[in-house]
Amino acid sequence: MLTATRLTKLYADVRAVRNVSLNLEPGRIMALVGASGSGKSTLLNLLAGLADADSGEVRLNGERVKGPSEVLVPGHESIRLVHQEYQLMPNVSVRENIAYALRFFEKSYRDFRVNQLLKLCRLTDVQDRIPRQVSGGEKQRTAIARAIADKPAVLLLDEPFSHLDLPNRLIVRDLLFDLIRHETIDGSATACLIVTHDATDALSIADTLGILCDGKLIQTGAPVDVYHRPINAYAARMTGPVNTVKYKHFQLFGLPESDNLDALICLRPEQIKLTDSGIPATIRAVYFKGSHYEIDVEVSRYISLRLLTERSDLQAGQQVAISIATSGIWPVKN
Ligand code: ADP
Ligand code: MG
């Protein structure tokens, strides 16, 4: 439905977005993960028609999305971008902020739709407050309600979780999941793109996950595939906790010979197990994580690994043994 082809955007000597192509489909969520400065916000502005591309193009249902230099009012009527800072009108209520998006509709429909959105986004109780009188989570939900009020074809979200505490992150995550997966509109649905520097929340609701590195989309795939088969150490780190160890230091685990001894092995903490007899290791630190513990162990001068366990009897300095399923690991470029 929304197609970007070889988008490139330069700022003076910075190539903020390089040759990015992607597709967003109705009723589907794509998440792009990238470090700060990797071009996430610039890409969203290009997709929304709020910045002019240096090359490449964006099409919505086959029709080209024009950049701000080509139109009187920048932006596209069916593409909504929720900015990181929400950009709500500060002096009017939550309700009025949402209703404003529906100002061209008849009052009876507007009232009906605003009530529906307030309920859906769990804002009914705070509808008469102005933005500075509500929490960050409520502000984010107001911005989302406003963005989807008139059922846009495309919803773009810039770091929707980054200003929120954990309970609110989960509320917003679940809300987005419900909105995109279940709120079909007259048989059509909204396509959604979330960009974030922290994959934790996006990983669980995205249908497709992309990794953005220095303006380039270096990998896309199902979240589970990108998580288990990142193409490089950056993609591995952007999608969750990972141990990276030089191949040459890891050969003692019985890996096959390799030409590239500086390549890295990426090992997720859950791929390492504590065993009764295995590779000897010393516990360096124990972190309580609620449902489990994170343990840092030292295997040799060069190899420190983090692993997960439910055991509560471990402490720093203790000798343990670990095992690693070496069949599931492979070297990647740094
Ligand atoms: P992200 O949202 O991933 O943090 P941005 O898209 O904001 O990344 O920025 C990508 C790159 O482009 C960065 O190097 C940033 O410094 C640069 N950049 C962004 N906006 C501008 C601008 N208006 N002028 C010059 N450089 C910019
Ligand atoms: Mg940004």
UniProtKB/TrEMBL annotation:
Pfam families: ABC_tran, TOBE_2. One of its GO terms (cellular component) is ATP-binding cassette (ABC) transporter complex. Coiled coil: none annotated. Transmembrane segments: none annotated. Residues 2-239 form the ABC transporter domain. The keyword Zinc does not apply. It comes from the Bacteria. InterPro entries: AAA+_ATPase, ABC_SmlMolc_Importer, ABC_transporter-like_ATP-bd, Mo/tungstate-bd_C_term_dom, P-loop_NTPase, Transp-assoc_OB_typ2. Keywords: ATP-binding, Nucleotide-binding, Transport. SMART domains: AAA (SM00382). This is ABC transporter ATP-binding protein.
